[in-house]
Fold these 3 entries.
Entry 1:
Amino acid sequence: MRFVPVFLLILVSAGEPDDREFFESRIRPVLAQECYGCHAVSTKKKGGLALDSRAGLLKGGSNGPAVVPGKPAESLLLKTLRHEDPDLKMPRDGAKLDPATVRDFEAWIARGAYDPRDQPATREEVAKETSFAAILQRRKTWWSFQPIAAPVVPDLPGVAHPVDRFLLSRLQAAGLRPAPEADPRTFARRCCLVLTGLPPAPEEVDAFAAEYGRNPEAATEALVDRLLASPRFGERWARHWMDVVRYAETHGSEGDPGIPHAWRYRDYLIRALNADLPYSQFVREQIAGDLLEPPRVEGGVNESALGIGHLRMVLHGYSPTDSLDELVTFTDNQIDTVSKAFLGLTVSCARCHDHKFDALSQGDFTSFYGIFSSTRPAVIDVNLPDRQRLHVDRIAALKSDLRAALAERWLASLDEAVSKLRAWSPDPKKPVTEGPLAAWARLSKAPPDQWTPEWARLQAQDAERARQLEAFRAQAAVVRWDLRGDDFKAWIPDGAGLACGPSAAGEFALPADGDLAVSGILPAGLYSHLTTDKHRAMIASPRFKAEAGKLWIRLRGEKARARYVVQNYPRSGTIHYKADVTSDVDQWVAWPMEYWAGDRLQIEISTLADAPLEGADRGRSWFGASEVLYARDGRLVPPSGRPALARLRPASDPDTLGASYRAALQRALEEWRDGKLDDDGADFLSAFLRAGFLPNRAADFPLVQEIRRLEKEIPEPSRAAGVLEGDAADAALFVRGNHKQPAQIVPRRFLEALDPAPYPIAPGRSGRRELAESLVAPSNPFFARVMVNRLWQHLFGRGLVATPDNFGRLGELPTHPELLDDLARRFLENKGSLKAMIRFLATSQAFRRDSRPGPDALRLDPDNLLLSHYSSRRLEAEAIRDGMLSLTGKLDLAMGGPSAEGSSYRRSVYVRVVRNNLDPFLSAFDFPVPSACRGRRDSTNVPAQSLGLMNDPMVARWADDWARRHASLDPDAAISRMFAEAYGRAPAAGERDLARAHVSEAGLKSLALALLNTKEFIYVR
């Protein structure tokens, strides 16, 4: 048995008041949070070590005493906190404590390790000390959770720029001198590459160098301003943000289906950055742009709504058998991207438990999960409402007039219609066995003695059909909706085609062209094409819990799509059924649902281009829907066919039957004219129209021509990838992240450490709007810090925080915390102007320094963390490719529009990003796999890069294009021009001699390829 010497107990228990304060404020909380869980008498006491009392601390465990008072170098506790021994790293499986905390422990031990804890902590005390509530309070003291400070800018005589004052004060303290300014030609190339991603033309470099010689400051500011005003700026910097939101145009997995209109999000980014959209507005649009009132409008388009496109850019598995797991996975990806992009925090690490290192609870993840799982993947129309509804009211008024004109004309043609009926002979290959014309088809040629029994058979057929339909509708159901009435209000409609809601029987649609005036008279229902079949439409049911049984939907349409959606999964697959709607008469679509019992699902019906996935890009399409029945039994089926005698009086011969048809037709037309038609009447009129018995030539009705003229002026929808608000709800916390073990409901809110109050969310709203406001709130210290750090990184190659997506304990500490806060404060004061902040940084001496380090810098600061010189680095893949294209003279500078192939001459930002088939040239140079937020790219040096530059057929073609541009020049002039275009400088004498000899032997194309294969070309210096 080991004994602790009494004098040591006296030593560590005695102490001055400041010793007690130091221990209680800086030592005890760390021991409690980081150690008690594994090293306390009442808990695990791993390795025989208990750190919950001074006796346990001094006794230590199997490796000896944890603390030797007054001797930090001999104290095992300090070694474990410093991670000096790979087998004794503490906290285990966690981040090393921040340097300030480790220094506190060193100072505490050096001062005698004062410790008033004379008894081990009780189980209750350990539980309290290790509760997440207690841990959260300590973790909230981490630097990034603190309010943005207002640091005093160091006063350095002769140094004007605040950035340089902060940097130089650190350099002086470290005994380092800053590098001199880069020469103007090097700086011009640097500035152009960093701000626009394109090398400058020789004439631009010459002009800048001349102006720089006269007035360096004015020349620098003018160059930066010109580049910031260039449309190329938005293209360059949009790509940076596309890395952050893992931009892709497909979903990956089997089939790799395209994300509809994903490129519109990319073009939105370019426009937003070129317009210097305030960052607060940008963030609002990224989270809830579709919900902003009023939206930001440009060119008749709701620009704000385009900002949510990144929420669709998640990976999706193929036909998951556990759709809730898939929902959790892709919602987790949304949360991970949003939290890293805007907060620099890894909220997704709290999916299964409270965060291991940061002030993030599992409740934080669950609250975000409730927000994002309350949205539904969708295709949205970003045309403004007045553009979406262009001519809708006018066409509706003209249709009312047309109805009156048609009714008058058709009533005047009753005898003609009946005569055509009498002369009609059905096609023997297509017998008419049901519907309004079935009686004539079956009776008009029948012998007199067959009339009575045949009529009876038709009556019995209609009666049986009515009985079956009544029984079908009356059966026990999970859900039932009649979309012809008020049930429609429970559904979620989207698109101009559904703006007017359900229609009574008698509505009609007009073909956009062709000989027919109208295409038919419609029964009551919900229709998307009553103004035009250009209009987009999608309607979704409320979510409901699936049970065994069968789901039935009554539909008609052309090129439309119906499907059930399990747990928001947007794809179709082997067990995720869809139906293509291609009939202009009502049909019942049925799906067995036994497999999905217990899952949450909804029904979606859409025009073809408006399915969230796997639809067409555009094209005319429409649907009509009337009933939905989810039957528990599933054995009863709706009857097929339509009633034959619904409007007819009994008849005993062709004459009385003809008279019956005439009377029924007259009655139906009068009811239609007066707005009193029912479904049977609509079916009756449509039968006469389809058979050609009523005059229906478009040329005979001037109103048809006027409606068609207006219809042609209705614009196509401007479709974009987006989301819709659904029947939103708070989410349940998943025990250990297991979606099959839901626990307590967590209200939707912001991060507990910043603002734990639940959001006051209106019914049916997800909470995205409220989250957006929390992100941009002045009380959120991450809002400005994270963004200015990203800007700094893209200008200097490394952020002040080297981990731009992680400002938590596993991330790097800021190298210049005061400078970071000064920049964040200036950013806020400038209303979040990205261009103003970039201009501020790009005009500093730090950005203009030479990239060659001095000997002291290499020795004292080998990683250039103190920025004594500009850090040269390899260009990103896109800048390398674009630089080569610019040299060819064929670079296509057209902006926007659908994406292009990598073999094209368009800028790289416009190259398609197909998850399963990324561009191989860009990938060789570390183009990121778009699966997660990537605020900082890898920068590797692998053989594929050199091999690609030397042997890729595209590079060879571009080198040939470049050489051909200068083939008419004499060799010396061509060499000078090509050096100036590639490097922004003239060749040195030795370089010129080598180049001249090479051209003489191998030709200008070979020289072009050689110049492209240098570090100088692919690096920014």
Entry 2:
Amino acid sequence: MLLFLSLLILVASSVSGSDSDKSALLQFKASLSDPYGALSNWVPTGSSHCSWDGVTCDSNSRVSALNITGGGRGEGGNSCARIAQFPLYGFGIRRNCYYGSDNVVKLAGSISPEVAKLTELRVLSLPFNELSGEIPVEVWGMEKLEVLDLEGNDISGSLPSRFGGLKGLRVLNLGFNGISGEIPDSLSGFTSLQVLNLAGNRVNGGAVPKEIGFSCGKLEYLELAGNFLIGGIPRSLGNCSGLRSLVLYSNLLQEAIPVELGRLNELQVLDVSRNSLSGSIPLELKYCSNLSVLVLSNLFDPVPSSEGDSYLGLSSSSDEFNFFEGVIPAEIATLPKLKIIWAPRVLAPGNLPSDWGSCDNLEMVNFGQNLFNGEISEGFIHCRKLHFLDLSLNRLTGELSEKPLAPCMTVFDVSGNVGVPFIGDVGGLTVYHNFGGNNFTGDLQSMPIGLDRLGEQTGYAFLAVENKLTGPFPGDLLEKCNGLDSMIVNVSNNKIIGQIPADIESNPKQPGQIRDLKYLSLAGNNLSGSIPASLGQLHSLEVLDLSSNLLSGEIPKDLVNLSNLTVLLLNNNKLSGQIPPGLANVTTLSAFNASFNNLSGPLPLKDNLMKCSSVLGNPFLRSCRMFSLTVPSTDPQGRDLLNSAATPPSSPPQRSGNSSAFNSIEIASITSASAILSVLIALVILYVYTRKWNPRSRIGGSARKEVTIFTDIGVRLTFEDVVRATGSFNASNCIGSGGFGATYKAEISLGVLVAIKRLAIGRFQGVQQFDAEIKTLGRLRHPNLVTLIGYHASETEMFLIYNYLPDGQAIGYYSRAEGLTASICFRG
């Protein structure tokens, strides 16, 4: 009888608990808005609550898991919060938990405290919905909860300083919400914690608690990126022996990378970009034998998209303040499992690592803009999986050949300047090989694209602009064109000789016309002979630039067959004969230049396109003889072609007997003016070049962070306070802009508003002069002047702090303040 009574009580208790869970679920539903009917089968009568969408029960019909992922139905065991579902990522890439479902799920509203009545609940996973408000305090007291995953909502409030429950918590994922306040050191009490993700919130006012590293033996993922954390990276994190991913990008962290991180043998991802770190890269990282992704800097801003993923959006390079002393140790660069090493504009000048050892897994390398010296290592040839290599804007030399290229690369950029933009729609995968702006020598080779990259959806760009390539034009340069969807070739401004092959439109290895070439520039070389008539069979061609060569003969009539041609540049050659009249019928042609040749005959009528200004220096062209005389250029071959402009050859064309001539005074005046203009242009170029390559402007990590205060407003004003209050100068806080920068509204403390005028770097003569004169401005007091509270000035950032004026008053005041600043900063 006693046993029977015990069983009866147990069953009654189970039924009571089950009913209580059902009631709590219905109250949870009642607090939410469900526009897409994701919870439509949550009804009081009928089926058991254990069969409701997103609900998982144990053997006693008690709710053990609630999984409702926005964007798709994350049912039952498909919890996005499972450890296996957390991918290794950096660069701000967020996980995708939608599972390809066609069913739309978007719950809105606040989380009901009634959910805490689900006393057997172990998983509460509601990511990527539109939940708002604070997390109920009752949730923090749930004893059996192991997974709390609310990523990608609009949750606000702060984390409690002490937690009453959650003793077995394994996953705390609150990433990409609106959580504010500091990270409490009491998180160290979660000894079973495997995932801690607070990325993309508004966590501010404090550092990463060192206490996290005191009991982190099970921690695998620590994601704190995209906040306003200050101080250094805690050395105690070296105790987290199981840590696989440490992502700290886009904070205000300073100091050096701790050498203790070298103890993290399981570490696979380390992203510390977009902070203010300095010092040297610790050699101890070589002991991280499983390291797969190393991101030390990132000139792109990870911006979350509305779908829950993210993309890399362009951002001001001034947002990257990391600057490390010395180069990356070879022992780190050659770690056997390394896939991505990303470090643009962050390292001190030095030599590019030459020994790449065993790089079988290496896929992406970015060392752009680091002023590295030496030659490009042939060791890259052994990196069989390498498909992205950016060594642009360095000081590398060497001979251009196929050997070190790894033909399977999607991006190979060793350019010394900004590459030529793509013309037209290349579609699909774009393979980008840029050798431009270096001192590469040797003969021009066949284009280094691998056969495995050829395909109808592949667009290919081959750029070798402004080098010292020599030798004849290779007849097989375009031999791989037939396997591509579209193609761009630019080998301008080299020393290539010989003739353009007469069969350039054909592929010698695959007979047939090359139909996919859209852009061909051979300008600024030493090509001779005639223009092949076969160019007229490149029917996809949109841009043809043969300017500044030694080409002779007539302009082929076949060019009129290029129905997609938009730009045709033939200036600065030795062409003769007439301009084909049919060119006037090419309706797509928008830019034409044939200046400084020996053309004759009439000028075809083509709206306003073909006019005498586009055929200067052709004394035998009818109707344009008055334009045939020009002042000789300071550039013998006129190779600096901008906006389709032409410059005359070194010796002026012979004057026609009927052409008007300049007198000696006019020639002397124009020549003097040209010389003065050339000197001024040279000085401007020199000024821009020295500013561009001045290493001091790149040392963001050591830039001063002081804020000078003129007027006490009763609250603390630091560099970090200003950056945090403006949301890192987020556009949503911008209240106006002008020629010298933009103005932002900033709430420094509760109810304390100021206006921050962020000045454009490069508009002032120097930090010291700006510093001195702005102090004079700070002492001015007048009822009609907006009050200057303080300022910050360094090589990488300048801003002014004003008292905030509401509504339209602010615009006038800040505009006048900008004018006053301009008069100060540009005085002689």
Entry 3:
Amino acid sequence: MSNPVYGKTKKTSSKASAGLASPLPWTLSIGLILFLLWSSFQVALFNGQLLQFEGPIYWALMITTFLFIIWTLVYYKTITLDSQRDWLKLVVILLPITYMLSLINAASNYLAINMILIQCIYAMLFVMTMYLLQNKQINHVIQSSLIGLAYIIVGFGLLNWLGAFSFTGKLVGWFSSGVVNGVYNQAIWNDANGPRLASVFQYPNTYAAFLMAFLFISIFTLIRTKKVYMQLVHSFMLVPILLSLLLTLSRTGLVMMPIVFVVILLLLKPVKQILWFIYLAISGIGTIAILNPVNTAGLELQQQFSTGLAVKGWIYLIAVSIIVAIIIWAIQRWISPKLETKLQAWGKRKGASLLIPLGSMLLAIIVAVLLLGTSVRNILPDSISTRLENINFQQHSVLERITFYKDAAKVISDYPLIGAGGGAWTALYEKYQNNPYVSAQAHNFFMQKFVEVGLIGFIVLMIFILYIFYQFVRSYLRKTEDERDSHFVYFILSMTILILSLLDFNMSYVFIGMLVFIGFGGMAAAIEPRPVRRLKVGPSTARGIYTTIAGLTVILLLIVSVRFLQANQYAIAAKEVTQTSQSFEEIKAALDKDLAIRSTHSDSLLTLSALYQQGFEQTQDDLFYTAGVSLLEKALQAEPFNKSMVKQLIQLYELKDHNEQAYNLQKDYADNYIWDMDWYEILISRSFDLGYQALGQGVVAKKESYFSSGLEAYQHVVEGVEHLKTLPEGQLQGKPFELTSTMILNAGKMKYMSNDAAGAASILKGGIAEDLTDATNREIARWYLAALTKEGQQDQAIYDKLIAVAPNEADEIKQIAALNF
């Protein structure tokens, strides 16, 4: 690299260091570190689209805004738009703007606004860290703090694995929203595979992504650092991290790990590549050595705590970690320098850095074959061995993810340009799903992003991400080794999480998203500041533009965060009041406080409408009915896909015997819930009831209209059941979806009353059951036999069984067969 470029780097560094004599930069840095620590224990700020999760996110918005104010005070005089890197702080504003644009088509106004606020958090963190991390001292402190935070989370997870639930609950309960009844909720996640380690995330796959990022960061840092005690600390933590990774039982993590590893190796010198292999192998052997006893101890401690067993588990873990740390330190101290000297010339050869990554791919294939296809797998605990055995492309989780992505493509085709707003997948997936799975997440960050912001927002995001990665790698390759290493941690952090987010919803955790954008900020800080030519703006003008935008944004975000926090607290208080009070006025007053701030706050809207419904049921006062209907009709304009609101409105219509309005709503919204069996059963029943009523009134056109829609709904279920038979063998269908006896009976009746006895018989025959003591089954048999009689046919076997159970059915059959419609 030429001297002028070095000169530019120094100039930038001094500019970024402006104001460091003041305590404000360090206040900002310490505040950021403490904020990350707090955030991690708020269930990693999971954006779960539920009331319980939103409060910490609004707190995070407020804290980030205050930190951004401090940043503005520190760096106001250094704000310029001289280089391409400088313009990134304006480009990042486009990310929340694309979410604002998607509000036009928002499937859920409530969820969409939350996502705008989350994007603002990311944008502010990116700008702050892009400046902060240009300073060598602050960069070192923040890197060390991030690694330290990761080690705390690893320790927290293992404490829970080895039975210390109460201790960890008390340890963080005073500030964590994740603690329920004195225990951090779902730090150990239980599913069909048994207990899985999830630590602060409550979801093992996201924890695996986090662990993998910091496993590689730890290896990189221990090789880079010259301090013996730091080498020992990082080496010591390799076994706990790898052990935790295996205890997550995350197949996604294990499958993607070689890919991430190879990408990182491509940017390292051959000597470091070899050391990475050695250290990963040593820590891997150490982990395998204690995996069975620690895994077994953890499984037993989940059932019943035993001090002796917990201590035994810790002894295994600590002893092996110490041994591994000493071995790695010895290699780093004595063998690494010799290795570097011997391979120095070879490392300079063209293409030398490619040989080991290519070899690692081959090695990964060999290891995969051994673990997946041979008895070598048996050295692992049964829970892990079984998970490895099930890794294949015909496995349920793989097939289901492919289905998610295909269904996401359907949403994108309907909302191509600006998307369907934040939270769109959660709001819309039931309308587009291929089969009745339940998943509020698309399990792919990029697909979910495309669904939310459309082609325009997706292009903006990809240009932003790819530009940062491209410019970072470009600058990285031009720098000396010391300069390269200074910010490489951020590349590992963002790249690892994004790659693993191709197969999971890691970025739905705002804490994880914050780490990714801090990583972007760190990479941007290392980019060579190439001057712009066409968009050159004077320093005073640049400061004016940016501080105006930042100032207005900060004021707005502070107001919004405070108000939304108030709304959240009012909503929670209202829920508590409903559990302790029977007073209509007291409960309504609490709900009104929330809705005065956020008129589309789903939880409070549903609670208030239920309150109106209860009031009407108790008093029969139409004021309650009218208020409830008006509230829900207005709410559905902002939340058109909220099933709970639609159901509640239908219930209100039913209370007033407004059956036609209830039917119309059931019918109009059926396409939004195409795999909801109960929805279609009710729709078919309503169609029959109203059609039969119209028949009695002699209104033939109405009868035909109702029967037609009911039979269409029945046919939808028939086709759905047939479609589910085409699912790949390894894929589970999800929720039940089948023809119920009620559907068959009502559809058969509608066919019969439409003067199609043959069609009625065909439908009803499918509902004939062995147990004719059941009233519905008996009625199906009755109408089936009547339809056959009408056609001049008979099913003697069914007739004999029915008459044996209920002799009076003979007359019933004759009466129905004699009916004409």
